Inverse folding.
């Protein structure tokens, strides 16, 4: 990738994965610029960050965001832009709408939207010859009524969503009264798949897999984002990821929620065209940068210890363990887990997470929403007809 060995812009600096990616590329000799909308994201405090730029919120000020990114790319001499969160959609729109002097490490907006859409993604996987769970698109109350009697067999979720937000897991029929699907805000009803959850993080270039980490989340923040991650190996899961990245000629980061059934069959549930926590299982800067930015061989995960964010474990994991009677499991996890923010010679982000958390908490308090919702409120992309 021409110019990829020079200056890289990583967006989504609020996310631990952005910090991790910055450390990897900085360690491989790249000049790393970071950008996002918060005032004090954790990655901005890292030694890997040459400079941090604060941007307008893309969800609420998309035109101002595009202008700011354009100016930033030109002012810093950026060669490559690597998104890490849902700002990838707004960047793809910016790259479609104007001539940018840098490359975007992501597909076009049409392909991004197709895999982010929870119904379109399943249909794509089906066309690629993969086994998929029954998934029905709900565009109206009539669509909902047609399957109300089977609700206990199904999982309901918005087509455009993240972190398992708003998911109804095998609800009783009366719970469906709270759902109002429409063409602008569609839902899906997906067969409940019993088995073992597998998450996948991948990097691909022109349909060729360059990095893959498979893992499971043993503790979560509520029912959504994981906060304690353990690596797994699964041949069928790898084959599924390879089939999708090859079939879409994918270039960029891409992640999947999968389910392994008792007979070993691995089914795709949904796709996120962005970075997720599997990135933390890579710690070799040179090999990772060579695979991601150039045409080096696929890089394999080199971290074996479980990865975690300890403050999140105390905030979310401990209460969950107390409720479920799993205090012993929690203690074992805290002994075995490696703090994913730790990095030799770069201690500042560990302390900075408290400042970053307080900023998010302020948003949550002002908007009357959860911490998790506040963490992505300004970058969420809910389809081409999203309502601000």
């Amino acid at each position: 990738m021409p110019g990829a060995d020079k200056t890289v812009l990583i967006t989504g600096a609020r996310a631990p994965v952005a910090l991790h990616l910055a450390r990897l590329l900085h360690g491989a000799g790249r000049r790393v610029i970071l950008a996002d909308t918060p005032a004090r994201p954790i990655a901005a405090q890292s030694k890997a960050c040459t400079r941090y730029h604060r941007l307008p919120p893309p969800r609420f000020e998309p035109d101002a965001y595009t202008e700011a990114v354009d100016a930033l790319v030109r002012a810093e001499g950026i060669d490559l832009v690597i998104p890490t969160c849902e700002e990838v959609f707004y960047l793809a729109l910016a790259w479609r709408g104007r001539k940018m002097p840098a490359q975007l490490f992501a597909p076009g907006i049409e392909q991004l939207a197709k895999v982010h859409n929870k119904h379109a993604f399943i249909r794509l996987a089906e066309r690629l010859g993969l086994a998929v769970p029954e998934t029905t698109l709900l565009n109206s109350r009539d669509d909902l009524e047609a399957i109300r009697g089977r609700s206990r067999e199904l999982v309901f979720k918005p087509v455009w969503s993240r972190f398992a937000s708003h998911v109804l897991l095998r609800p009783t029929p009366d719970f469906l009264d709270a759902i109002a699907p429409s063409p602008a805000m569609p839902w899906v009803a997906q067969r409940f798949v019993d088995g073992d959850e597998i998450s996948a993080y991948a990097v691909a270039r022109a349909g060729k897999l360059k990095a893959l980490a498979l893992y499971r989340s043993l503790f979560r923040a509520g029912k959504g984002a994981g906060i304690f991650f353990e690596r797994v190996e699964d041949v069928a899961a790898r084959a599924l990821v390879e089939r999708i990245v090859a079939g879409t000629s994918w270039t960029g980061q891409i992640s999947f929620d999968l389910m392994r059934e008792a007979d070993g069959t691995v089914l795709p549930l949904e796709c996120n065209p962005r970075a997720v926590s599997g990135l933390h299982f890579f710690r070799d800067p040179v090999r990772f940068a060579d695979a991601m930015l150039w045409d080096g061989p696929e890089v394999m995960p080199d971290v074996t210890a479980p990865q975690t964010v300890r403050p999140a474990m105390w905030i979310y994991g401990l209460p969950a363990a107390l409720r479920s009677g799993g205090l012993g499991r929690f203690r074992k996890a805290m002994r075995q887990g490696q703090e994913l923010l730790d990095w030799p010679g770069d201690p500042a982000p560990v302390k900075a997470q408290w400042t970053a958390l307080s900023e998010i908490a302020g948003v949550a308090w002002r908007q009357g929403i959860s911490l998790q919702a506040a963490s992505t409120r300004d970058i969420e992309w809910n389809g081409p007809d999203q309502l601000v």
User: Anything to note?
Assistant: The first strand starts at residue 7 and ends at 11. The chain has three domains: 1-106+347-388, 134-191, 196-344. The CA atoms of residues 96 and 253 lie 19 Å apart.
